[in-house]
């Protein structure tokens, strides 16, 4: 190691060195142990020339020169004074320092005073030292732009700087003891104000007038427009570029002209200029700094009016083959000559022709008034006060010899913004003209007026007035979206914010996004970063923010002159997120404003409710199954199939029936049925044949066998041809008059005396009585 540096910044050689003819360079590093900030300085050593002398502010040969990048000055950058004496008391060659310039950005938002550097003498370890600064900006006008703490040596700037007002300051720093005695030689401090893009280009003229001959070839020069930018022209902040925004009218092409982006020269780019079709073009020119970058640069506009001059490119033509005009000639005097086609005979001394005068009088008729300039285009700024005179749109009445009056009225005024004087055609503003209105198309508002005379019959003409509205900065910007969500921990995601403005360039972006100082929690919890002229990102500043919904105010300012600001509130939902950065379901509920305990309670209630519903459904299913099983397992004695369900049903008399009951009255007559051929039978008689075997019901059925038992019985019944219904007779137990069967008593009397009715005892008490009555031979 050839060189070392001490804690106070002294650089010394560790051994005897032979410096080559070229320079020797090395880097000295300084750092702050508390903030971990670090600064590097390059030190260059040159070969000493004893006889050479140099100004005090330049590095001498054999001395050190330090270069620090201070475009963003550290809060505690130390500028030490050089030492003049070595430790052993011998004088060492004086070392002069070239203090690096201190760069201060203009338009700083503070807070002020803002520290720039710290000046320190190594003698303050031995004696108290007082520091001071002198020069323009300190003790000379403008006063107190810079200040210094006399004890610590910390130097401050006290207010925002403006480079366009003053680009640099030269100060001198002094160090004295408490008695005012100089302890160090003054050192020079150079402060440069760093330019910011805070000035938009300004055109020398707001309206430029130029002309070009009709029929000119492409590339023909028309005019030059110039815009100046007060910012530093050596940086992109002051480099202006031009472009054409609009051309009116867009005939025969929408791009009839082009402009050199650097010089502002306007030339023709297309053929077809024809004065007889388009006499004048209105071209809007835009100048943008930042070398024409529309996202970051500031812009301004001017108007170029290009008149197409006439050349003799049309032969004369009659406007009409015949017609006369009373206002030009009221009468015509004609001389009519008549002559003989054949010559007169020889010797006749008379003229061979004769003439006569003829007078033709022209009768005047009423002609319609007309507007000489139709369409008429005027330009003015939007927002002019009500009652402002805009223009006079008057018509001409060709009937000069008629004493007629022309009166004006509106035919079309979509927004009802205009008022016309009925007598002279003066147009005034009846309301505030707004360029952002829906009635504006391509910055132009169009209205139609009527001029009518009082002739007989009356005649009228129409004219169109076009008002080109120049934009003013009358709309503050807005932010989108109005609602967003973000994770409760930073770094996972951010909210993209877009600024929008109803105005047009140059009264829109680039925008300035910032958070308000009040309430203090806004800047504590959030930070906003500008991405480009129209976009920014909102993100968390702290490591964790509790889930919930927060109203975050953001101040957005446009680039208008003067600029307009607006505070937009964005509702931000902060929620817990998964590994993909998406809000979890529980997190979304928590972000709605509920605490963790409330969320757990809600979830528990939901689980309990679902459990109760499930238990109720299971209970209902079980109960239905038990009821169904109980019906199938009912005791055979109580089986409804063994009981009589209807009693005392008697049909109508025989005279009400149209079917034959003789077969029921005389059972012995059924013998012939048995002899019928198979497959042929009546529909009202039971078929004869082997009956199918029905399944036998188990004595103690098992619930699982009941379904099979029912299914087998149903299948057997469906295949049983003898099972009812086998006829259409639905009325039974008929007892009518004249029946040979008789009643129960007569049936009993006609039957053999040994008829057995004991089976009625099994039917219950009521039938037991009948069994006793008929079984015992007693009569009813």
UniProtKB/TrEMBL annotation:
PANTHER family: CADHERIN-23, CADHERIN-4. The gene is CDH4. Residues 51-93, 734-755 are annotated as: Disordered. Coiled coil: none annotated. It comes from Ailuropoda melanoleuca (Giant panda). It is a single-pass type I membrane protein. Keywords: Calcium, Cell adhesion, Cell membrane, Cleavage on pair of basic residues, Glycoprotein, Membrane, Metal-binding, Repeat, Signal, Transmembrane, Transmembrane helix. GO terms for biological process: adherens junction organization; axon extension; axon guidance; calcium-dependent cell-cell adhesion via plasma membrane cell adhesion molecules; cell migration; cell-cell adhesion mediated by cadherin; cell-cell junction assembly; heterophilic cell-cell adhesion via plasma membrane cell adhesion molecules. Cadherins are calcium-dependent cell adhesion proteins. The keyword Transmembrane helix applies. It holds the Pfam family Cadherin_pro. Residues 61-73 have a biased composition (Polar residues). The keyword Glycoprotein applies. Residues 736-753 have a biased composition (Low complexity). It comes from the Eukaryota. GO terms for cellular component: adherens junction; catenin complex; desmosome. Its main location: other. This is Cadherin-4. Residues 96-203, 204-318, 319-371, 372-479, 478-586 form the Cadherin domain. GO terms for molecular function: beta-catenin binding; cadherin binding; calcium ion binding. It is found in: Cell junction, Desmosome; Cell membrane. The chain crosses the membrane at residues 598-620.
